[in-house]
Design brief:
Layout: H1 15-30, E1 33-37, E2 54-56, E3 65-67, E4 73-77, E5 88-92, E6 99-100, H2 102-115, E7 119-124, H3 135-142, H4 146-173, H5 175-178, E8 185-190, H6 192-203, E9 213-216, E10 235-240, H7 249-260, E11 265-270, H8 285-296
Parallel strand pairs: 5-7, 5-8, 8-9, 9-10, 10-11
Antiparallel strand pairs: 1-4, 2-3, 3-6, 4-7
Helix pairs in contact: 4-6
C-alpha cells in the first residue's frame, strides 16, 4: 500500500538539534495507541456472533490484517500536547468489510497526522464473517460476484455505520479529556471505509455532523445518497484513474453532488496509483489533504 516517503533533514548534532530530536521522539511516543471498547458487553445487533477475531499475514501485501471483528474499538493516537490544535479525525480503513489493514495504513496515517497536531481515532468496526484463515482470498473471490458480495455485506455495513456513529458520540463526550474541539471532529474513509464516511456525510444527525469528510478511492454502492443537507461538511476526495477495483466515477459522482448543491468540495484524480493511491505522485494525497485542512483552518491552534 502507499508509503509516506518523508526524507529526514540532515543537520549537525548541536544542542539545539538535540532538542528538536527530543521533541520529535516525544511526539511519536505520546502518539502511541490507546484502545477504547465502543460497547459494554456484546455489541448491539450482533449478539449472536460467536466467531473469534483473528489476525493473519496471508495477503499479497504480506502485512498484518485483522478479520472477524465482533467487538469494535477505537484506537486513539493523541498528539504531543505542545502541538495539539484541537482537531480530530476518525479513520475508517478499507478491506471490503471483511478485513482491516490497521497495522499498516492505519499506523502510517496516525503517525503522519499526529505530527500535524491532529488527534487520530482509528475505528476497528465490525466485519462480515470469514470462514477460513485466509479472509483476503475469501473476499477477493466473493467480489467477483458483485450481487453476492453486496448481499453479504449489507447487514454489516449497517452495523459498521452504527459503530461510526457511536465513535463520534464517544469522542464528543470525552472531548475535554482528549483536548479536542467538539466543532473540529472530522471523518476519513478509505475504500470500504470511504463508504462509511460518505454515508455519514449524507445522513448525519445534528449530534453526529462531522466538521469535514475525506473519502479516498470510495465505492458508493452501499451509500444512502439522500439530498445534500444544507449544512453539509466540506468534502475531500481522491482516487486514481487506473483503479481496477473501484471506478473513479464513484468519486466524480460524490464531487458532483457537492458541487451541484453549492457545497465545498475538493477532488484529486491521479493518472496512476491504483486502489490505494500507491507510488508517486498519488501517495502525495496526504499532503494535499493536510493543505486542504490548513486552508479550512483545522490546523490552526485552538488550545
Amino acid at each position: 500500500m502507499f508509503e509516506f516517503n518523508i526524507q529526514p533533514f540532515l543537520f549537525p548534532v548541536t544542542k539545539a538539534s538535540m532538542v528538536i530530536i527530543f521533541l520529535h521522539v516525544f511526539t511519536f511516543t505520546n502518539a502511541q495507541q490507546q484502545v477504547i471498547p465502543l460497547y459494554k458487553g456484546t455489541s448491539p445487533g450482533s449478539e449472536n456472533w460467536n466467531w473469534t477475531e483473528g489476525e493473519t499475514y496471508k495477503n499479497p501485501l504480506n502485512i498484518k490484517i485483522v478479520y472477524n471483528v465482533t467487538q469494535p474499538t477505537l484506537i486513539a493516537y493523541l498528539p504531543n500536547p505542545a502541538i495539539a490544535n484541537g482537531s480530530a479525525v476518525i479513520i475508517c480503513l478499507g478491506g471490503g468489510f471483511h478485513v482491516l489493514l490497521i497495522d499498516s495504513i492505519g499506523t502510517k496515517l496516525a503517525t503522519e497526522l499526529t505530527k500535524r497536531g491532529i488527534a487520530v481515532f482509528i475505528l476497528k468496526y465490525r466485519l462480515a464473517q470469514s470462514f477460513t484463515d485466509d479472509p483476503w482470498k475469501e473476499v477477493t473471490n466473493l467480489m467477483k460476484d458483485s450481487l453476492k458480495f453486496i448481499q453479504k455485506i449489507a447487514p454489516v455495513v449497517k452495523l459498521a455505520g452504527d459503530d461510526l456513529n457511536v465513535s463520534f458520540s464517544y469522542i464528543l463526550q470525552h472531548a475535554d479529556e482528549f483536548k479536542v474541539d467538539r466543532k473540529r471532529i472530522g471523518v476519513m474513509g478509505l475504500s470500504a471505509g470511504g463508504a462509511l464516511a460518505a454515508n455519514l456525510a449524507y445522513n448525519y444527525t445534528p449530534e453526529t455532523r462531522p466538521a469535514f469528510v475525506a473519502a479516498l478511492y470510495t465505492r458508493t454502492s452501499s451509500v444512502k445518497r439522500t439530498s445534500i443537507p444544507q449544512d453539509a461538511p466540506p468534502l475531500f476526495i481522491a482516487a486514481a484513474m487506473d483503479d481496477s477495483t473501484t471506478s473513479i466515477s464513484n468519486s466524480v459522482s460524490l464531487y458532483n453532488d457537492w458541487m451541484n448543491s453549492n457545497h465545498s468540495a475538493e477532488l484529486h484524480l491521479y493518472t496512476k496509483g491504483g486502489h490505494g493511491l500507491r507510488g508517486f505522485p498519488a501517495e502525495s494525497w496526504i499532503i494535499r489533504f493536510e493543505e486542504w485542512l490548513d486552508v479550512l483552518g483545522f490546523l490552526k491552534p485552538k488550545y
